[in-house]
Design goal:
Shape: globular
Radius of gyration: 16 Å
Strand order of the largest sheet: 1-2-3-4-5
CATH architecture: 3-Layer(aba) Sandwich
Helix content: 25-40%
Oligomer: single chain
Order of helices and strands: EHHHEEEHEH
CATH topology: Aminopeptidase
Length: 160
């Protein structure tokens, strides 16, 4: 019996095309969820995703990671420093996604630990992210890492 080895590491330049494909899949998946239509136009990573991911990978104030199973890239995550009014910063986890068939084995956890550790090393006072309404799996995932709701965004669609 062979064992599966899951892990996470900083994304390399060679990973960015794979990460961009994962970002496209993540956006397509989340856009279908409640609140996803507006999310995809307001908070999602802008197109072309490969350019923004490559820029974030090179930026000192951001980190892009990949999640792996047996060295195959099956997920990605990204965090960026956001300066607050008082000069302190929070780490904003803008992206975290694992392919559906690779979920539940620890890949997301490994990536989240890297993102949290990076934010802590950068002196962040906290870490924020976003879960769409009704997405209990994402909410539960974040809660296992100590993230809890600090605000609720409300929205009303208006006729065109």
């Amino acid at each position: 019996m062979t064992s599966i080895v899951e892990g996470a590491r900083r994304a390399s330049e060679a990973d960015i095309a794979d990460v961009a494909e994962l970002a496209t899949q993540a956006t397509a998946e989340l856009t279908q969820r409640r609140g996803g239509g507006v999310w995809s136009q307001l908070e999602a990573r802008p197109d072309p995703q490969i350019e923004s991911l490559a820029r974030d990978r090179r930026d000192d104030d951001a980190l892009v990671v990949v999640g792996t199973i047996d060295d195959a890239v099956v997920g990605y995550g990204a965090v960026r420093l956001v300066e607050l009014h008082d000069g302190t910063a929070v780490g904003r986890v803008s992206d975290i996604y694992v392919l559906p068939d690779a979920r539940g084995v620890g890949v997301g956890e490994a990536m989240m630990e890297l993102l949290l550790a990076w934010a802590a090393r950068r002196g962040c006072i906290g870490v924020d992210s976003l879960a769409l309404p009704g997405d209990r799996d994402t909410k539960n995932f974040f809660e296992t890492h100590g993230l809890t709701a600090r605000a609720i965004t409300v929205h009303r669609a208006l006729p065109a």
